[in-house]
Amino acid sequence: MKFGKEFVGQMIPEWQQAYMDYACLKSILQEIQNSRKRSEKSGALKRKKSFHRNFSRNFSGLTKRSSRTASSLELENQDILVSATIGDDGFERYETTIMKVAEEGRESESELVFFKTLDLELNKVNHFYRFEVEEMVKEAVVLNKQMDILIAFRIKVDKPSSSWSCTETVSVDMNALGSKEQKKNGSNSGDILADEMDIEVEESRSNGGDSTRKSVQEALSVLDRIRLNKTQETPLSTIRNVLKLSNKEELKFTRENLKKIEERLKNVFIEFYRKLRHLKNYSFLNTLAISKIMKKYDKITTRSAAKPYMEMVDKSYLTTCDEINKLMVRVESIFVEHFASSNRSKGMNLLRPKVKKEKHRITFSTGFFVGCSVSLVIALCLLIHARNIMDTVGHKLYMETMFPLYSLFGFVVVHMIMYASNIYFWKRYRVNYPFIFGFKEGTELGYRQVLLLSFGLGTLALTSVLINLDMEMDPNTKDYKTTTELLPLFIVGLVIAISICPFNIFYRSSRFFFLMVVFRCISAPLYKVSLRDFFLAEQITSQVQALRSLEFYICYYGWGDFRHRQTTCRSSDVYNTFYFIIAVIPYWSRFLQCVRRFIEEKDSSQGYNAIKCLLTIVSVCLRTAYSLNKGKVLKIAAWVFSALATFCSTYWDIVFDWGLLHKPSKNWLRERLLVPHKAVYYVAMVLNVVLRFAWLQTVLDFNLPFLHRQTMIALLAILEIIRRGIWNFFRLENEHLNNVGKFRAVKSVPLPFIYEEEEESR
Domain for residue 212, yes or no? Predict the structure, then answer.
């Protein structure tokens, strides 16, 4: 693999703009190489003249060189001169001067452009690296305080009494505290975290334990000025905040609280260490890129500029700063000692990122179920054609009863396939979807796992359809087989049972993550809204027909005679009432999320989004009412509100969710696009508009004679799922680019403790 591709592949996606622009520098070198090739094609006469001119110039130089110093001779022999100056902001600025200019004007101009660009890139990299290192130093100071409090908390839990005995155990515990002088003076960050206080057991014994007792009392005094940071929001805490009631609780020194604090602080250290690794990799990659590009420059221009330039790079902040390495060593020692029971192997496994290995059995199983699904679809088509099922008497009854039951699985499978496609393209275009969704590291599903689950469910559902493809009753019993009629209900029950199964099977972490987000969507607006919450809520709005199918399951198997495929669901007022409610619930949840964000974030756009959700709710209700009770007034109202809601939703999708069609941008697209082909964005916008108008079928009563009404409903629902799948990619691409603009590469984990004075100052 060429270094350019390897360089891009190892970049932190959110920091991509902060890396050296290796591709740009390489293109300038290509231009220099092309100009040199053109110059080499000049005639022999021109080369002779150039030779005589250079000879005379060199000869005259030899006569004058005797009076010059050795340093001036050395300087004259250099191809480039790199100088460093300190800017107004305190950062070093590097500037390169070419000592020996090439004779070809175009070539020398390209070389000047090359070094000017290289200097700008080096200054950019140095500036970013220095800024991030300083931020890490500040975070290290905060973590040092958190460790002080944690150890004091441990002492308080282990020794709840006020009388302290001078024991060796207390002295060892105190060694983990940070140096107070260093905290006050803000000393070297490499020594900030958990510096030892040099409290030796022998000294404490010789002083009769006075120094140890005093140190313990000083350590415990910090507990009087702190409180727990309640980051886990609950519906009760939200209600208390609305009623302006105090959420403060007394600090309880229990082992249960200690365990929670240790877990939270452990996660803080893991994220802190991950960013340290990112910065170390950032320094190494950029230094290597500069070395590679300078070697290419020397090779193309036959100069010797790489050595002096790299000597300057080796003296820059990018390579001389050792703060990151010191911090990494300190974090490792603290983490191993305090969060891994001094087991270094265990501690480093937690700190270092887990590399997901693709398993061959996943690929094989996915391919197997894909083959099974395709074979079952072909077998189903052949069986329908062989039995001439479309013309049988029981065909209409089957489509009214069994088809809605099985279509549920079709909706779910199509949505999962679209999600797997999204994951594939997100990875291909380096969209950091695990970070955006907040998955625990190493637990996110890849597209192969999602395809495995989707086609596994599809195979199970298609097998059930083939077994239950009966159009006529049994002539002897005058009913259908009970076992086969219960197959759809059995599959639904199996899927629900697997989803809530507490055992570590079928990707338990992902299942529980999904259920947790579903609960937060249902509980809106009692939880603070994050991207994963409203993202899933948007998915549910595209699965309205699947929710209605679940309603039909309850009615059909609960109050219908499934043995004779008889049901009075669609003639029941209760069923029709819930038919409205089920369709409104996803949009209502989304509306409440927008209201909460509007109140908390003071963002007017969320207010407009809430109005858009209300319009959608009204249009859905009117279309549903028209489909149940035809009427001219309902038809006109459904037309008006559906058109208005569609226009608002389409505009919001393209402009706000996708970040497209902005006038300042070129071609009305974003400044940055991950997909290189711009036509993809225009096609996606057109498809979004077209698929948004699928509701016209309901209002226009457009039906194909060879398609049953339930088939048409299912096809329109699938089109909406496909539209949502397209929306997913561009929505997350836009979110990723927003993170890139803010250089957010590591999630911020809230600290377990808050100082009372810090809270008051806010």
Answer: no
